[in-house]
Amino acid sequence: MIGASGVGKTAFFLYPNMEYACASGMSFLALDTKGDLARNYGAVALQHYGYKVAVIDLRNPTRSDGYNLLTLINRYMDICREQPTNLAARAKAEKYAKILAKTIINPEGDASNYGQNAFFYDAAEGLLTAVVLLLAEYLPPTEEAPQERRHIVSVFKLVQDLLAPSKTAKGKNGFQVMMDTLPDTHKARWFAGAALNSAEQAMASVMSTVLSRLNAFLDSELEQVLCFDSAIDAEAFASQKSAIFLVLPEEDPSKNFMAGLIIQTLSRELFSVADENGGKLPNRVVLFCDELGTMPAFDILPLFSAGRSRKLTLVPIIQSLAQLEKNYGKEGAEIIVDNVQDTIFGGFAPNSQTAEVLSKALGSRTVMSGSVSKGGGKDSASRSLQMMERPLMTPDELKSIPKGQFVVMKTGTHPMQTRLRLFLDWGISFGDPYLLPERAARTVAYANKQELEQAIFRCHHAQPAESDTPPAPPVPPKTPTARGGASYAQARRTRREPPPPVVVRTDGGQE
Fold first, then answer.
1. Is the distance from CB of 155 to CB of 132 less than 8 angstroms?
2. Are 62 and 75 found together in one domain?
3. Where are the beta strands (DSSP E) in 241-381?
4. For 117-135, how does the pLDDT look when each residue is reduced to its tens digit (9 = 90+)?
5. pLDDT at res. 482
6. Are 196 and 338 within one domain?
7. pLDDT at 231
8. Which of 388, 317, 396 is nearest to 355 (CA)?
9. For residues 367 and 235, what is the distance between their CA atoms, to the nearest angstrom?
10. What are phi and psi of 355, to 5 degrees?
11. Regions of the chain with pLDDT less than 50
12. Strand-pair category, 285-290 with 312-317
């Protein structure tokens, strides 16, 4: 949908379509820049349609549900820990870890865009996958530490600690030393292989790349969202009636990256769920992306090209086509436009260039035109008629469309101008707002390097080949003597033995 600010995109289009989604039982995610969608439709979906509702509020993180990016990874690692022979659970954990790492390191989808630096981003992707898997596998909640520590902020802390040089292994950092303690067949060593087999400076550059990507998650308020388990994960979202409202702060664009990250991670996880269910999701999913043009660019093209066949629909709502070209370039914007099957637009600003583009897209029609000329004589008037081509709607006509009326273009049909009914005309009304309690008192638990090293040691029952723990002082070797064992003087000091008896020989000598 395309429309300038204030034309009624929410009241005429978004509210009625969310009502339709609830009535049809479809799961949906809605970007909410004002907070109205969560307040109004959260209660409607929960009370009247029996939906599971989650609100991820980046404007007020202390009044938000959790959204742990490692939720599915932790879940399948826990299953694998309880059932060591369950290879399917381990494979799913590894798959979701790779999805998360790719989304964080390469949000635009392809490391080849970085040219000669592509190696560092590919290696950083593998290293981040390895750290996520180690954290999920070896540091689950225990009786001594019952709070969940496996979240993205702990990943940052571990990478930062492991970047420090080793105290005992010269020329190695903590990450390389810890990798040496793992079995040769552990997948974490394989994922991090590109970084482990590079030079010291290249290894440091790879880990610094990971830290720079994770630095965006460091926010004391944002931790209240990222460090606690998700109320709705991708598998539940695809199989049960669920609604996720993602509230974005208009006054703080630095958090807009989280919207792209969540959409991208969720969509890739949904693709994986669809592949396990015959290529389609168990339940249809709709993503209402309001103000998509104000978000940073992310790998959105697969959602348009591959989402439809998997029962995943993306509804982007923008103010201008220029927003797409700014974020995704000319070719990316053309790909997005070419993959959109339905377009609704109206309410353009007086100087809008988008109106000219869409006027051309509407096509033209043939009309009759003519001219009349009149001379000075009584019967000297003449008239000529001819057929000519004119736009179906000129840019001026598009700009003068009344509020509430829109033009609809659909693949395989002729465009039409119609009036969308206000949500009140559909009988939609809102009661008490959907509000979450204040949760500022929640403390966040972090994982640390020492705990991870100890957990790996306990699991594999092997002394690390090289450890940052200072070695014990060497035991002095025992000096063999004729009496066998320790030296005679040392034995006397330790055991306090009496002196040996003196033997008197018959020849008058002593022994």
1. yes
2. no
3. 242-247, 285-290, 312-317, 342-345, 364-373
4. 888 999 999 999 999 999 9
5. 42
6. no
7. 87
8. 396
9. 55
10. -60, -35
11. 463-467, 469, 471-472, 474-497
12. parallel
